[in-house]
């Protein structure tokens, strides 16, 4: 199986070195090119045609948002994950609107980045846990899910990220029965007929981007 070919875009060489070391330890990952600004990022993308682009936002050469748009203008199927020090939900929203398929904050544990790459390669969108929670908090007050408790929101968010009840229980350190009871309560509150309908209603309410 061919390795996942990755382009690193960040204006700090030390940061790129950290990514390269992290990804080099992962089986099936290969860093094929690096760039320090948006202009070089577009050139590197055109030359190397990577499977994944890891993109910083605060850079010379127009910045990360401009680079995302330029790469997607060249190839609308490009898989771009923004990796940024900015943690506000507005940055994640803007990145996704620009066409990025993932957003990982630089405050995240390293395994969040590895998981995001695998998720995007699997055809889904990816948010690091901290950004997903921030995103949810930013929109939940104005949505039909405002009546959910914090635990119910966490469970619903994980469900929307593709986890089943058993995986949610492990992630939140809860019993499977507790998770199932909470899911029943969430379905009742949102008038959902099942988990698929629950995810659809939550997506329509704007809890997280559709995956």
Describe this structure in words.
There is one protein chain. The chain is of the alpha/beta class and 211 residues long. It has 2 domains: 4-140, Rossmann fold, CATH 3.40.50; 150-205, Orthogonal Bundle (Arc Repressor Mutant, subunit A), CATH 1.10.10. Helices cover 54% and strands 13% of the residues. The protein has 10 helices and 6 strands. It has helices at 13-24, 38-48, 63-74, 89-98, 110-121, 129-140, 150-160, 165-172, 176-190, 195-204; strands spanning 4-9, 29-35, 52-55, 80-84, 102-105, 126-127. It has a 6-stranded parallel beta sheet with strand order 2-1-3-4-5-6, sandwiched between helices. Strand 5, helix 5 (110-121) and strand 6 form a beta-alpha-beta unit. 36% of the residues are buried. The model has no long low-confidence stretch (mean pLDDT 88).
């Amino acid at each position: 199986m061919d390795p996942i070919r990755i382009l690193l875009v960040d204006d700090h060489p030390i940061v790129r070195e950290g990514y390269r070391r992290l990804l080099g330890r992962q089986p099936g990952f290969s860093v094929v090119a690096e760039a320090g600004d948006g202009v070089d990022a577009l050139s590197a993308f055109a030359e190397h045609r990577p499977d994944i682009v890891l993109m910083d936002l605060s850079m010379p050469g127009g910045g990360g948002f401009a680079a995302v748009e330029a790469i997607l203008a060249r190839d609308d199927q490009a898989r771009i994950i923004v990796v940024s020090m900015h943690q506000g939900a507005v940055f994640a929203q803007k990145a996704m609107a620009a066409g990025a398929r993932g957003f990982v904050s630089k405050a995240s544990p390293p395994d969040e980045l590895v998981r995001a790459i695998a998720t995007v390669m699997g055809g889904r969108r990816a948010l690091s846990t901290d950004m997903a929670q921030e995103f949810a908090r930013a929109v939940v007050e104005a949505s039909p899910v405002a009546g959910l408790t914090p635990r119910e929101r966490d469970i619903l968010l994980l469900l929307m990220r593709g986890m089943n009840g058993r995986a949610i229980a492990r992630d939140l350190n809860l019993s499977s029965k507790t998770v199932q009871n909470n899911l029943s309560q969430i379905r009742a509150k949102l008038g959902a007929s099942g988990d698929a309908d629950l995810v659809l209603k939550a997506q329509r309410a704007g809890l997280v981007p559709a995956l």
